[in-house]
Amino acid sequence: MLTPAESLDDAVRSLRVLILAGENYRQATAQMSGLGVTETQAVSYLSIYGERGQNDLGGDLGISSGASTALVDRLERQGVAQRYAHPHDRRRVIVRLTEKGHGLVARSHSWLAASFGSIPPEDLPTLSSRLRQIAQVLRTESERQVAADQE
Amino acid sequence: MLTPAESLDDAVRSLRVLILAGENYRQATAQMSGLGVTETQAVSYLSIYGERGQNDLGGDLGISSGASTALVDRLERQGVAQRYAHPHDRRRVIVRLTEKGHGLVARSHSWLAASFGSIPPEDLPTLSSRLRQIAQVLRTESERQVAADQE
DNA sequence: TATTGTTATACTCTATAACTATA
DNA sequence: TATAGTTATAGAGTATAACAATA
Asked: Closest partner residue to B127 among A11, A113, A135, by Cβ?
């Protein structure tokens, strides 16, 4: 039986292991699709959050605007995403997945689904919402820490 | 109310979001510590799985032996890990975290712990073990997919 | 003036392959 | 012969900064 503090330490270790496994997954999908890691991350962002401004996408990924231009160049060249004109603002560029891009995401679906194989089906909804809670705090906390570091 | 299939799809989406948040966290820790992403991943592996042979560590990270040499050079230069001689095999090099390396891991502990802030304490042990189950399948499945792809 | 994106340059990290030393 | 690691070279991806177009 663990004390509450020990339980939390163990949960942190588990989260570290899962983060590393996620990075493993990322490299594997990149290698299999012939894309780079950043390109594969971009496809995942576009799949989950929908179309984005080019620099917004770069912001998601933590890269500069110059790197964003080069990234979207590569995504277009490989046929997984495309640039579209913004309806009102002629400075802006909207980036959207192509069919091929959506297909790439679909291909990894069963692979990720297998990760839940040992979870009782009735527990899935709760687990799912907890994964999102963890993700949200992890993300906002990362932004907060970086902002505090830069001041 | 969701059907079982819908629940699984939702869980997969949640896992994608968590993987992206983990990559966010990785970039933030790298930036704050002044290390690169791969170096920070290496520190995390060494913290969780203990000392490793240099090429074993490179294997964890999915990089070549040449890149492993350069990586450990950087880790030593920055004082977060050190090379040691293997007791019996004079070809091998053991890589181990320094105090400074352990300190780096400790600094991100409270940050990760905050991610569990909204989870009822009594649910932590179950959640923790499920995170590990997901991580393990994700990792082995990634290796399997890459191996199948390379044949 | 501020914002969005592009271009040019230099730097970091990685893969590949040839090599050395040890098993 | 096979394995662990090193070195040299080339290529991919990124940051930085200067720039153009639009708001």
From this structure: A11
CA dihedral over B143, B30, A74, A50, signed as positive or negative: positive
Chain B nearest-CA distance from A79, in A, is 21
Residue B103: give the domain boundaries. 9-115
Q: Is residue B3 part of a domain?
A: no
Q: In what order do the strands lie in the sheet with B93-97?
A: B52-53, B93-97, B81-85
Number of domains in chain A: 2
Name beta bridge partners: B97: B81
* Nearest partner of A26 among B145, B50, B113, B133, judged by Cα: B145
In chain B, which residues have pLDDT < 70? Answer: 151
List CB contacts of B116: < 8 A, sequence separation 6 or more.
A8, A11, A12, A15, A134, B124, B127
- φ and ψ of B119, to 5 deg: -95, 130
One domain for residues B99 and B129? no
Asked if A95 and A151 sit in the same domain, the reply is no
For B139, the closest chain A residue by CA position comes to A21
Question: Is residue A127 located within the same domain as residue A146?
Answer: yes
Identify the residue among B129, B130, B131 best suited for mutation to test binding to A, counting A beta carbons within 10 A and taking the highest. B131
Provide the whole-model pTM: 0.97
How many residue pairs from chains A and B have C-beta atoms closer than 8 A?
222
- In eight-state DSSP terms, residue A93 is E
Nucleotides of D under 7 A from a protein CB: 3-9, 12-18, 21-23
A9-64 pLDDT, tens digit each: 999 999 999 999 999 999 999 999 999 999 999 999 999 999 999 999 999 999 99
Q: Are residues A131 and A88 in the same domain?
A: no
